[in-house]
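Q: Could you fold this chain for me?
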Amino acid sequence: MNEEWRSILYPLGVLPLVFFSARFLIQWLASEWKGHTVVPKSFWILSLLGHALMVLHTGIQLQYHVALAQACSGVIAWRNLNLMGRRKV
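A: Sure. Below is the predicted structure, expressed as structure tokens.
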């Protein structure tokens, strides 16, 4: 990918930060409302989206080691999301 495209796509790096910030706020507010620590399903969905976008962004910026780390974190978020679906209350 040439330098011009990379500089145009560079602002996409803000989107993962929006998702990571939103997941933090949702988890914080949900915990405050319940009165104890909770992790809603939306936390893991936003986390997974944030990691996917961060992999895309770091790939565009040719930072493959960071992309690999984000992909591993994304797998953990995917696993936790799947585990939440299996839990019976």
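A (continued): The chain has a mean pLDDT of 89.
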